[in-house]
Design brief:
314 residues; alpha/beta; Glucose Oxidase, domain 1; 2 domains; ten-stranded mixed beta sheet; two-stranded antiparallel ribbon
Length: 314
């Protein structure tokens, strides 16, 4: 059984072109993580959804610390019901790598600062308790700011609540983890209806968890900043009655309105954060370039209008 193999991780995350950990897992830069912490979950979700990443969010999870958010780089693992030959294969692979303990301990022992364990335990709660007090302590010690997402159970919650590490889980049971074994370590992982790959950025809020592909981070930040910039400029205009909601919500802004936005960002101190954004696509769309209009509409998840139906931004 191939577990946590560099070649497999490189192939799986081939669209990531940045820094990597020794095992090949993508390492999104700390400064990008800090920016993501300033965005809402919806601002991060939206560009993923219109780009075809439509299964990145999962709700219906309990949290160890209600109200506490979670950010970090995913370390993934998947479990299945126990079968003796598969279990022997997994433990043989672990022994060859010098790993000690049980399957969940192999994963937790690999963690580094800022990591989040993402575990598919196939919604197993009775004898499906991935972590308890001891392993949550280890997660906190190794990751500092990280935590865990478990599509399964936990135990020792009274102990866990004393540890400042956020854990998302499906249920609680006093039994230890039994009758299952790991089948994937840093491979694709399914949490409910969402998919997570190693190195994805995990964003946890009271709504649920969102998995941001590592290679999509820059695009997501740019898109979110553009939406924030539009709102920063347009909301006072709405309040003053200069623009209508139809003006502001139009995916393609008329050229004078777009140019006024860019000038505002350049000269108003509040726009400093958004200076340097590339508005060339929006410019081309405002000038009526068909392909640019189609791309902007796609980014707003709007079907292009058929001939004779009018113009989307008028």
């Amino acid at each position: 059984m191939r577990l946590n193999e560099r070649e497999d991780i490189l192939a799986l995350t081939g669209e990531w072109k940045g820094e990597r950990y020794p095992n090949g897992r993508p390492r999104v830069a700390d400064d990008k993580l800090e920016i993501l912490k300033t965005l809402t979950q919806e601002e991060i979700w939206h560009p993923l959804y219109f780009s075809g990443y439509r299964f990145q969010f999962q709700g219906n999870l309990r949290t160890l610390h209600p109200g506490k958010k979670l950010y970090g780089r995913a370390v993934t693992c998947c479990f299945m019901p126990q079968r003796p030959d598969v279990r022997r294969d997994a433990f043989g692979s672990a022994a060859a790598r010098g790993w000690k303990g049980d399957c969940n301990q192999w994963v937790i022992d690999s963690l580094t600062e800022g990591d989040v364990v993402v575990c598919d335990l196939y919604d197993k709660i009775f004898k499906g308790t991935f972590v308890g007090g001891n392993l949550t302590t280890a997660i906190k010690a190794r990751t500092k700011t990280g935590g865990a997402v478990v599509w399964g159970g936990v135990r020792d919650v009274e102990q866990m609540k004393k540890i400042d590490a956020q854990v998302y889980f499906r249920g609680v049971d006093p039994t230890p983890i039994r009758d299952c074994q790991i089948v994937s370590f840093n491979g694709p992982c399914r949490i409910g209806e969402a998919i997570c790959l190693p190195g994805d950025i995990v964003i946890g809020s009271e709504n649920g968890v969102l998995f941001l592909p590592s290679h999509m981070v820059d695009f997501v930040i740019e898109n979110a900043f553009k939406m924030q910039a539009r709102d920063l400029y347009a909301f006072p205009k709405l309040e003053a009655g200069i623009y209508t909601t139809a003006d502001v919500d139009a995916p393609v802004w008329p050229l004078p309105m777009l140019e006024e936005l860019i000038a505002f960002l350049e000269h108003d101190p509040r726009g400093e954060r958004y200076r340097g954004l590339d508005w060339s696509l929006e410019h081309r769309a405002a000038q009526g370039e068909e392909k640019a209009v189609e791309e902007v509409l796609r980014r707003f998840d709007i079907e292009p209008l058929a001939p004779g139906e009018g113009v989307a931004f008028l």
